[in-house]
Amino acid sequence: MSNEFRSGFVAILGRPNVGKSTFLNKVIGQKIAIMSDKAQTTRNKIQGIYTTKDAQIVFIDTPGIHKPQSRLGDFMVESALSTLNEVDAILFMVNATQKRGRGDDFIIERLKNVNKPIYLVINKIDQVHPNDLLPLVDDYKDTLDYKEIYPISALQGNNVDELVANLIKDLPQGPQFYPEDQITDHPERFIAGELIREKVLQLTREEVPHSVAVVVERIYREDEQKVHVQATIIVERKSQKGIIIGKGGQMLRKIGTLARKDIEKMLGDKIYLELWVKVQPKWKDKKADLQAFGYRQDDY
User: Which of 84-93, 192-201, 254-263 has the least mean pLDDT?
Assistant: First the structure.
């Protein structure tokens, strides 16, 4: 890690379907599961984490930037706006195939009170003739004091690397917030792990005391039908591993079946659950293991 490691939070704003997910998947390099469409009204949803040896960008989607229909809606918009002043940079993404609309103007109005570098990102340039881009850039360029204007194709990758490189230059020097292999931070990850652990404890009772941790390694969507969940059950002794796997793998299958049903309920999606069991002696006494398995210092 270099002495000048840079890190920070970048908000992505834009009307629905401007290509925010496609952009993130391109930057992060793989599909990030879209776990739930339920509105996250009270917290920022960390959508993607991009890490290199010199920098880490935590991309967040700010909920609630929409035309409010009620006082609750007003409150949500205000909460979202206060968050915008806490990030290090903002990507305002628009669609190259559409003229500037009321939804875009609504976001622009809100961004006038934000004192952070704002990048205008014109996505889907692969779908328009280059000549059609200039009028669009002209239409937007004076609406805000943009740090840069980037025409990109998130799908094909045009200009995406350059945009990310420039974003990094805008970030302050700071720590690495997340492990380098972590690409997203879904609270669902934690809950899925807890549901699996609950089943282990329910089904094995006394044989396996509370020396069980569950690490959800990956949650990703491979297609529209199913979300894949891969998790490792960690125990302290070989004998416990044997109990959890059971004769012919019977116990592990049972744990998986019950946990899968609960996770499906939580996510409202079909789940393909893969479970492994690993022995890690005395993990409860090792700070590094505790942190790796998701236990923060104030939990123990």
Answer: 192-201
